[in-house]
């Protein structure tokens, strides 16, 4: 099969090194918190019988706030617990952080991720399966892209080493589950010819797979070419590819409606 290839134009971001430093600092705090507080919180978490095993909205709010507070303190931002609880309650209602400043929102997401990762560890220890977990949106979207553990949609696929099997990697909780090797994970099309693989030389080992039928895209990391320590950072670092793929799709994919 000759895959259709193309080139993506990407706007370079000079602040990436700065962003990395910030991310690393927060990540260390999350790691510390998980080591120190993970055992206690794991006793509180329980997985359901069927996926999603522990949806984000069911994560213990107190755990998220506990970690969020630590991240805020590290950033020298002090906010009363009551305010954090209020923001959390609002977030659980609408998943919206538009009212928060960008850094506050980043720290909240890191806190949610930090707690969700505990659930993912539990799921992996229990050996839960993603088997037959297909949640389809009313428009038929997101086949196989919804995380069986936390229920969030991920567009990050990884071709694993050495055989190149395709798994989805949840950028929220870190869970991985197998998906079909070819075709569109959004609309379910199995026609490989409709998938366009776009690359940019600044990001070796990564392809943006755009579907010509639905115009949606996935980010595919080839773990046989690129060794990734931290998929969350890798996804953030390569966000320019998402914007470029979106733009490409708008220009090249004829909307069906
Ligand atoms: Zn997940
Ligand atoms: Zn598609």
Automatic annotation (TrEMBL):
Pfam families: FdhE_central. InterPro entries: FdhE-like_sf, FdhE_central, Formate_DH_accessory. One of its GO terms (biological process) is protein maturation. One of its GO terms (molecular function) is ferric iron binding. Residues 147-181 form the FdhE central domain. GO terms for cellular component: cytosol. PANTHER family: PROTEIN FDHE. This is Putative formate dehydrogenase formation protein FdhE. The lineage of its organism: Bacteria, Bacillati, Bacillota, Clostridia, Thermoanaerobacterales.
């Amino acid at each position: 099969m000759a895959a259709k290839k193309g080139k993506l134009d990407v706007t370079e971001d000079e602040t990436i090194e700065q962003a990395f430093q910030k991310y690393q600092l927060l990540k260390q705090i999350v790691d510390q918190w998980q080591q120190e507080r993970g055992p206690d919180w794991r006793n509180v978490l329980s997985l359901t019988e069927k996926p999603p095993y522990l949806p984000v909205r069911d994560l213990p709010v107190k755990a998220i706030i506990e970690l969020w507070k630590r991240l805020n303190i590290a950033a020298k931002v002090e906010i009363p617990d009551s305010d954090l609880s209020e923001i959390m309650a609002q977030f659980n209602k609408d998943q919206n952080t538009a009212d928060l400043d960008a850094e506050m929102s980043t720290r909240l997401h890191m806190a949610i991720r930090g707690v969700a990762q505990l659930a993912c560890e539990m799921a992996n220890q229990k050996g839960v399966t993603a088997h037959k977990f297909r949640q389809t949106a009313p428009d038929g979207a997101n086949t196989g892209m919804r995380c069986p553990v936390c229920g969030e949609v991920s567009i990050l696929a990884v071709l694993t080493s050495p055989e190149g099997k395709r798994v989805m990697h949840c950028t929220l909780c870190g869970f991985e589950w197998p998906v079909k090797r070819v075709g569109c994970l959004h609309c379910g099309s199995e026609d490989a010819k409709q998938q366009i693989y776009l690359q940019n030389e600044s990001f070796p080992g990564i392809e943006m797979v755009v579907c010509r039928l639905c115009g949606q895209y996935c980010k595919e990391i080839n773990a046989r070419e690129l060794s990734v320590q931290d998929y969350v950072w890798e996804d953030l670092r390569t966000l320019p590819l998402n914007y470029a793929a979106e733009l490409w799709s708008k220009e090249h994919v004829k909307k069906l409606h």
